[in-house]
């Protein structure tokens, strides 16, 4: 991927272990006898909570860069009252609004999940949350992801860890040769699929309905939701999907260079050479933390791999062909996505005339449309809006449109809420800012997050968002008592805007969506240009219109 995204790892780390002997304070907690084994959790108000449940064997030693191996049933009662370790990731990153202190050291033995379930749960719908973190970091134990408020609305919340960075996403010719399918990469995605299999096999013991599982995630978690929707290996393991601030970017293919991306195996082999590792055995012998750091220093970019099996083709092609999971969808993005991700935005040129000249040189016959949407009169804001629309806005609307075209319930949102500390920091509607409202965790945001005031406005907004999200998990329809009706995307392109309260509307930024759809179509037709963060002032010259891009 391009240099801009490689640098993202130092700006975004929206980042838990083995269930052990029962501590004395947990001995009166609820005990569940699941197919996986007996677990003892804690009762918290009206919920039973279980943490740190291992869903797969540790992917260490010879199992590093192998598909996850299911946990065999254990004997005795295991404690499930503490989060497991986060998967190995970069730990010395610059402080940002996303920095969240965690005393649990990362580990390769990290494939765990957590469950919040109503005490009276029976055939209760389930939401499985996939954390963000650019596929470089993140963890299910972040306080902002606490499932208490959502589960209190009558659903079961599951959150998972999965392998990240080089340990989760490395493709390499030798790894492909080891595989019976002749493929490599996508280990983090395979972890997510294994977690879904665990949920399907075990969640009924916690009162859940294995036939009513919603996958949900934000940022890299939203990307993961699209990967799961595109993967035949995940088919039948979930019934609904929620994608917050996802990005449908071009993805490296396993064995061939395409769309301006080197082959994933080629990238892996080149990285191994930089690390002076003559073979996979040498890479497996390296300390996990050192390996992760050196991979980042040498510009490794964790992404899925188009291998023809786990990910059969580019996401845009899967959704164009209607080959994705045919499930109801809720998707959206935030008004200020790039305000906290400025590394993704190209710098403004010295003058408005230079801005216009650059856009005309790069967008050709589409330049007039581009400049109407993103004028030179306010270059900083135009650059932020263009980058947002190209990456997150286009993706969310495309997801909603493609699911609606299949006749499925499809719901689009636009999060445009701001509050004093956020607006004073020029972060209105920043990337991830909806999360405390969706989870009802405004009082548990990271230490450097703009402080969310304890006001009736914030409380009410969070209450309705918890309601919309939990009801979608339950019924495939987002409904909140006393709040605006959220209509399906459908033929009117309906959506919900969240400002201080929800407001229903139609046709969200239609000209922006049409422009970026045309840009991506032309790049796909050319076959040698990626569609990711190379937009606006740093866009390569746009190919001419073809018959397939009308």
Feature tags:
550 residues, alpha/beta, Rossmann fold, three-stranded mixed sheet, globular, disordered N terminus
Describe the protein in words.
- Helix content is 32%, strand content 14%.
- The chain has 550 residues and is α/β, with parallel strands linked by helices.
- It has one domain: Rossmann fold.
- Helix 11 packs across helix 12 and helix 13 packs across helix 17.
- The longest helix has 27 residues.
- It is globular and about 70 Å long.
- The two termini are 28 Å apart.
Summed up, what is this model?
With 550 residues, the chain is of the alpha/beta class. The protein has a single domain (5-538), classed as Rossmann fold, CATH 3.40.50.1820. It has helices spanning 3-8, 148-151, 165-169, 173-178, 187-202, 220-230, 264-274, 280-285, 288-297, 315-320, 352-363, 367-373, 379-405, 420-424, 435-439, 456-475, 510-526; strands at residues 31-34, 37-40, 42-44, 47-54, 77-79, 112-118, 124-130, 156-160, 208-218, 240-244, 329-334, 410-415, 494-498, 502-506.
| CATH topology type | Rossmann fold
CATH class: Alpha Beta
Rg estimate, integer Å: 22 Å
Largest sheet: 11 strands, mixed
Look at the helices and sheets and give the structural class: alpha/beta
Spans of at least 5 consecutive residues whose pLDDT stays below 50 are: 1-26
- How do the strands of the widest beta sheet line up side by side? 3-4-6-8-7-9-10-11-12-13-14
The structural domain count equals 1
């Amino acid at each position: 991927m391009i240099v801009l995204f490689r640098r993202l790892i130092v700006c975004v780390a929206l980042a838990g272990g083995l269930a052990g002997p029962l501590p004395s304070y947990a001995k009166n907690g609820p005990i569940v006898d699941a197919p996986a084994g007996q677990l003892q959790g804690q009762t918290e108000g009206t919920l039973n909570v279980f943490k740190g449940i291992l869903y797969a064997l540790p992917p260490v030693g010879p199992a590093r860069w192998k598909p996850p191996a299911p946990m065999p049933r254990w004997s005795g009662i295991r404690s499930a009252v503490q989060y497991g370790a986060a998967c190995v990731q970069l730990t010395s990153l610059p402080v940002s609004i996303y920095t969240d202190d965690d005393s649990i050291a990362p580990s390769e033995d990290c494939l765990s999940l957590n469950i919040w379930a109503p005490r009276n749960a029976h055939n209760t719908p389930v939401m499985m949350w996939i954390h963000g973190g650019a596929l470089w970091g993140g963890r299910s134990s972040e306080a902002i992801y606490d499932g208490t408020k959502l589960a209190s609305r009558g659903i079961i919340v599951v959150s998972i860890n999965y392998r990240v960075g080089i340990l989760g996403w490395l493709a390499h010719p030798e790894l492909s040769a080891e595989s019976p399918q002749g493929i490599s990469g996508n280990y983090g995605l395979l972890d997510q699929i294994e977690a879904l299999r665990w949920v399907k096999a075990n969640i009924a013991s916690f009162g859940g309905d294995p036939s009513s599982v919603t996958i949900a995630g934000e940022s890299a978690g939203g990307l993961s939701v699209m990967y799961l929707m595109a993967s035949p290996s995940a088919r039948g393991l979930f019934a609904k999907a929620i994608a917050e601030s996802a990005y449908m970017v071009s993805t490296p293919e396993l064995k061939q260079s395409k769309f301006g991306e080197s082959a994933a195996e080629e990238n892996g082999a080149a990285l191994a050479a930089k690390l002076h590792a003559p073979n996979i055995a040498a890479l497996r012998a390296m300390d996990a933390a050192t390996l992760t750091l050196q991979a980042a220093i040498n510009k490794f970019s964790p992404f899925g791999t188009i291998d023809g099996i786990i990910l059969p083709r580019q996401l845009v092609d899967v959704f164009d062909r209607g080959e994705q999971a045919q499930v109801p969808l809720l998707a959206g993005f935030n008004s200020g996505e790039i305000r906290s991700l400025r590394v993704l935005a190209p710098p403004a040129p010295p003058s408005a005339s230079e801005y216009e000249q650059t856009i005309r040189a790069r967008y050709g016959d589409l330049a007039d449309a581009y400049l109407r949407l993103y004028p030179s009169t306010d270059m900083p804001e135009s650059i932020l809006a263009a980058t947002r629309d190209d990456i997150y806005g286009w993706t969310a609307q495309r997801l909603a449109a493609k699911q609606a075209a299949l006749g499925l319930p499809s719901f689009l949102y636009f999060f445009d809420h701001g509050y004093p500390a956020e607006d004073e920091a020029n972060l209105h509607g920043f990337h991830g800012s909806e999360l405390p409202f969706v989870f009802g965790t405004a009082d548990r945001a990271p230490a450097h997050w703009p402080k969310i005031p304890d006001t009736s406005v914030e409380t009410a907004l969070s209450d309705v968002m918890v309601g919309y999200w939990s009801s979608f998990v339950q019924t495939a329809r987002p409904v909140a008592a006393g709040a605006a009706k959220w209509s399906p995307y459908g033929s009117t392109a309906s959506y919900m805007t969240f400002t201080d309260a929800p407001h229903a509307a139609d046709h969200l930024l239609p000209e922006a969506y049409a422009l970026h759809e045309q840009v991506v179509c032309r790049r796909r037709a050319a076959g040698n240009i990626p569609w990711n963060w190379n937009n606006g002032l740093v866009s390569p010259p746009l190919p001419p219109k073809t018959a397939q891009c009308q």
